[in-house]
Design brief:
heterodimer; A: globular; B: alpha+beta; five-stranded mixed beta sheet
C-alpha cells in the first residue's frame, strides 16, 4: 500500500497546473510534494535525491516531459522511479511513445482526483509486486 | 451567481497566468507575420494554446477547450510543415486569439464562456483541412469534416498494436479518451469564410469602454466590471519573500536585545558600555527597518514587460487597419514598477500608442514623398532615472505643428487669440491635453474624438506622475511619462502656518523664495510676483485653508501643477520628509490627501493642492492689500 509520506515531484511549466495536481494529491492524502517548472529543473531536483514519484507534463520548454522520462530511465540512480505522464496529448503516437519510453502511467487532462487515485493505486500495485 | 463556486482561487490563478501566456502568444504572432517559418515561434505558440487548453479543461470551460484545441492542432500542422502560414491563415489565427481573450473576460466575470463564433470555428477547420484561401468559399462537406482535428484511433493492421499499449498505459479504452477531446467540436458550423473586418479584430484586441466613447463625462480610466477580481493577487519571487522573512526575523532579535537593555537601564545600569550597546541596537534597528521597507516595497514591484507585452499586437492591428506599416519596439521591459501603477498605466499607454499610430505616423506614400522609409516605428521604452520611472512613447512620424495646434484650440474656443499669441512651443504641445481637443479634422474610428489625452494626463497625475511632450516637425513626437517609484512613500515639504505644519508634495515644488513686499505687484486686482520674467499669482496657505491671516507671509513656495504655476505664501518651513501616507478611511476632508506621522510623533496633514485650489474658485488669489495686511496694525514679524 502507498505511504502518505511518498515524496512527489510535480513537473509543469504552467504553475496553475502544478497547483491543480498538488491539490489533487493533497485530496488523496499526499502532502509531501515539490514542484519543478521544466525537465531541466526537475532533473536537478531528482539528482539531488529524496523523491519517490514523478508526475510530469509533456509539453514544456527547455526539456519536455518525454525527454525527462528518458533521462530518468537512463540514469541508474533514478531509473526505478515511477513516472506518471499528465498531458492533453491524446494522440496515438504520443501514447505509444510514452509507453515505449517507460512511462508508468498516462493521464489525459482534464481528470479528477478519482482518476488520479486509480492510476496511482495501479502504479503502486505494480511496484509492490 | 458564479459558474465557478469553489474554484475561484483556481480560476484567478488560471486567468493571471493564462492571460500572460496569451499576451505572449499575441506578440509571437506579430513576429510570426515577419518570419512565418520560424520553427521556434511555431513551437512556442503551439505550447501556449496547448497549456491554456489544459488549464481550461479543469475549469470545465469546454468552449475554450474546443477553440484552443482547434488552434493548437493547426499549429501542430504548421510546425511539422504540413501546412504553411499565409496571410489568410494568420487572420484566422489572430481572430482565434481575440476570441480566446473574449472568453477570458467572460471567465473573469465568473461565467462559462459561450461558444466561439461558428464562422471562426469553421474557418479553423477549413484551415486545418488545408482548404483556406484556396480561392473559393468551400462548403465543408463530409470529406472535409473528416479531416477535422483529433485523429480518431484506427487500429492499423501492420503497425504496432497501439490499442493494447493504450489500454495498458491508460487503463481506458481509446474512444473514451478521444470522446473527451472530440465532444466539444461541433461539426455543423456554417462554412463561409468570415467577412469580419479588421476593425472587429481591433476592437476585440483593444477593448472599448464607456469612457472611450465620445461625450463620456464620468471619471476616466475606470476598470471594466469584473476586472477588480484580478487586482487582489500578486506573484512574488520567493527570494524576495525570503528576504522579507529574514529581515523581520532580524528585527525580532534586535527587539529582544532592546528589551534586555531596557531592563538593564531601568535597573540603574547606565555605564558607558550599556549606553553604547543601546546606541548600537537602535542604529541596527534603523537600518533593518529601512531595509524591510525596501524589501516590502520590492514585493510590489513587477517588471513592466508584462504590461508592454499587450501592445505589439494592438499596434499591429491598428496599423493594418489604417494601411500603415508600423513596428512597435519595446525597450527596458525588465524595468520594475509598482503593481498598482502597472494596472493604471495600461489605458494611458494604449491611448498614446493609438495616437502615435493614427496621428503621428504618416501614410506610406506620404513617408516616401518625404524621403523617409515606408516602414515606421513606434518606440515604447521604460527606464529608471534616479527615484523616478520614465516611460516614453515615441514615433518617427510627422511631428506636431505648434501653429496648427494653437489655431485649433482657438477655433474650438479653448483658448483666446491673445493666449495663443503668447504661447511657446511647449505650451502649444500641451494644448492636446485640454478636454475636447482633437487635431484630426476627420474623426477616425481608432483615435476617437479628443476624449482621451486629457484622461491620459489625469490618470498619470493620479499616480503623482507627469507627462511631457517633445516633438520635431517631420521627424516625430515623444510623449514622456515620469512616475515615482512607489505610491507608498511620498517626499513632502513641510510648510508652517503659524506653528502648525502641513505637508505638500515635493514633486510640485519648483523653488522656494522670500516674499519681499516691495516686489509684490497688483495685477488685475490680484497679488502677483515676477519670477524670472514670469508673472505668478500669489495664493496664501491661510486663504486656502480658510484660516484668518495673522501676519505677513515670509516665504513663497513656487508650485507647479499641470494647469498652472503659482506661489504658495507661507509663514515658515519645517523641512522635508519622506512621508508614509496613511489614508483617512471613510473620512476625507476636502483638500486633504492623507496624514503622516513625523519623527517626533506629530501628526501632519498632507494637502491635496489641486483640490484646495479647485474649491477656492476665483477667491483664491489675494489682493496685494490682503496679502500684506495693509491698513491693519503691523504684524509683529
Amino acid at each position: 500500500m502507498s505511504d502518505p509520506k511518498t515524496r512527489f515531484l510535480v513537473v509543469d511549466d504552467f504553475s496553475t497546473m502544478r497547483r491543480i495536481v498538488r491539490n489533487l494529491l493533497k485530496e488523496l492524502g499526499y502532502t509531501n510534494v515539490d514542484e519543478a517548472e521544466d525537465g531541466v529543473v526537475a532533473m536537478q531536483k531528482l539528482t539531488a535525491g529524496g523523491f519517490d514519484f514523478v508526475v510530469t507534463d509533456w509539453n514544456m520548454p527547455n526539456m519536455t516531459g518525454i525527454e525527462l522520462l528518458r533521462a530518468i530511465r537512463a540514469n541508474g540512480a533514478l531509473a526505478h522511479l515511477p513516472v506518471l505522464m499528465i498531458t492533453a496529448e491524446a494522440k496515438k503516437e504520443n501514447i505509444i511513445e510514452a509507453a515505449q519510453a517507460g512511462a508508468s502511467g498516462y493521464i489525459v487532462k482534464p481528470f479528477t482526483a478519482i482518476t488520479m487515485a486509480e492510476k496511482l493505486t495501479k502504479i503502486f500495485e505494480k511496484l509492490g509486486k | 451567481m458564479s459558474d465557478f463556486a469553489g474554484m475561484e482561487d483556481l480560476l484567478q490563478d488560471f486567468l493571471i497566468e493564462a492571460g500572460d501566456l496569451l499576451s505572449g502568444v499575441d506578440n509571437k504572432l506579430v513576429d510570426l507575420e515577419r518570419t512565418p517559418d520560424d520553427l521556434g515561434l511555431l513551437n512556442e505558440i503551439f505550447r501556449g494554446f496547448h497549456t491554456i487548453k489544459g488549464g481550461a479543461g479543469f475549469l470545465n470551460a469546454t468552449e475554450l477547450v474546443t477553440l484552443c484545441h482547434l488552434t493548437e492542432n493547426l499549429f501542430d500542422k504548421l510546425r511539422t510543415g504540413e501546412l504553411k502560414v499565409g496571410p489568410d491563415m494568420l487572420d484566422v489565427i489572430l481572430a482565434a486569439t481575440a476570441s480566446v481573450r473574449t472568453m477570458f473576460s467572460e471567465l473573469e466575470r465568473g461565467l462559462q464562456p459561450a461558444s466561439a463564433d461558428p464562422r471562426l470555428l469553421a474557418q479553423l477547420k477549413q484551415a486545418l483541412a488545408g482548404l483556406l484561401g484556396s480561392g473559393e468559399l468551400r462548403v465543408v462537406s463530409a470529406p472535409a469534416a473528416s479531416a477535422a482535428p483529433a485523429p480518431r484511433p484506427v487500429a492499423v493492421g501492420d503497425g504496432p498494436d497501439w490499442n493494447a499499449y493504450y489500454h495498458a498505459v491508460t487503463g481506458m479504452t481509446p474512444p473514451d479518451v478521444l470522446a473527451v477531446m472530440d465532444a466539444p467540436v461541433s461539426e455543423q458550423d456554417a462554412p463561409h469564410l468570415s467577412d469580419s473586418t479588421a476593425n472587429e479584430i481591433i476592437t476585440a484586441a483593444v477593448g472599448r469602454r464607456v469612457s472611450d466613447k465620445p461625450g463620456y463625462q464620468g471619471a476616466g480610466g475606470g476598470r471594466r466590471d469584473g476586472e477588480r477580481q484580478r487586482d487582489n493577487s500578486i506573484r512574488v519571487d520567493t527570494a524576495r519573500l525570503d528576504q522579507v522573512l529574514n529581515l523581520s526575523g532580524e528585527i525580532g532579535l534586535t527587539k529582544n536585545r532592546l528589551n534586555a537593555l531596557r531592563s538593564d537601564i531601568l535597573n540603574g545600569k547606565n555605564d558607558t558600555d550599556t549606553l553604547h550597546a543601546l546606541d548600537l541596537a537602535v542604529s541596527q534597528l534603523d537600518l533593518l527597518v529601512s531595509d524591510l521597507q525596501n524589501a516590502v516595497m520590492k514585493t510590489r514591484m513587477q517588471p513592466i514587460g508584462r504590461l508592454f507585452q499587450k501592445y505589439p499586437r494592438i499596434a499591429r492591428d491598428l496599423a493594418r487597419s489604417l494601411g500603415k506599416d508600423v513596428e512597435l519596439l519595446l525597450l527596458g521591459e525588465e524595468t520594475e514598477i509598482d503593481k498598482t501603477m502597472i494596472e493604471d498605466l495600461a489605458d494611458p499607454i494604449i491611448h498614446l500608442i493609438r495616437n502615435a499610430v493614427d496621428h503621428g505616423i504618416e501614410l506610406p506614400n506620404e513617408r516616401l514623398a518625404m524621403g523617409k522609409s515606408e516602414k515606421s516605428s513606434v518606440r515604447l521604452e521604460a527606464r529608471q532615472e534616479g527615484d523616478h520611472i520614465v516611460i516614453i512613447v515615441a514615433d518617427d512620424g510627422r511631428g506636431m505643428n505648434p501653429e496648427k495646434l494653437r489655431a485649433k484650440a482657438v477655433e474650438k474656443g479653448l483658448i483666446s487669440d491673445e493666449e495663443a499669441n503668447t504661447m511657446d512651443e511647449r505650451q502649444s504641445y500641451n494644448l492636446v491635453f485640454l478636454p475636447g481637443f482633437s487635431t484630426a479634422s476627420q474623426v477616425s474610428d481608432v483615435s476617437g474624438r479628443g476624449v482621451g489625452m486629457d484622461v491620459v494626463r489625469t490618470n498619470i497625475q493620479k499616480l503623482n506622475g507627469s507627462i511631457d511632450i517633445r516633438s520635431a516637425q517631420g521627424s516625430g513626437t515623444e510623449f514622456i511619462i515620469s512616475l515615482p517609484l512607489t505610491l507608498a512613500i511620498l517626499p513632502v515639504l513641510l510648510v508652517c502656518l503659524e506653528e502648525q505644519p502641513f505637508a505638500v508634495p515635493l514633486s510640485m515644488v519648483r523653488e522656494i523664495l522670500p516674499i519681499d513686499p516691495k516686489e509684490v505687484q497688483e495685477l488685475g486686482g490680484r497679488a502677483t510676483m515676477v519670477v524670472r520674467g514670469e508673472v505668478l499669482p500669489i495664493v496664501t496657505l491661510a486663504a486656502l485653508l480658510g484660516w484668518p491671516q495673522q501676519r505677513v507671509p515670509e516665504y513663497g513656495v513656487l508650485m507647479q501643477s499641470a494647469e498652472q504655476s503659482f506661489i504658495l505664501a507661507i509663514d515658515s518651513f519645517a523641512g522635508r520628509e519622506d512621508a508614509v501616507i496613511k489614508s483617512l478611511d471613510d473620512f476625507r476632508p476636502k483638500g486633504v490627501a492623507g496624514v503622516t506621522t513625523l519623527s517626533n510623533g506629530q501628526i501632519v496633514l498632507i494637502l491635496d493642492m489641486k483640490e484646495l485650489l479647485g474649491s477656492m474658485g476665483d477667491q483664491k488669489v489675494a489682493t496685494r492689500a490682503q496679502l500684506l495686511l495693509e491698513g491693519r496694525l503691523p504684524a509683529a514679524a
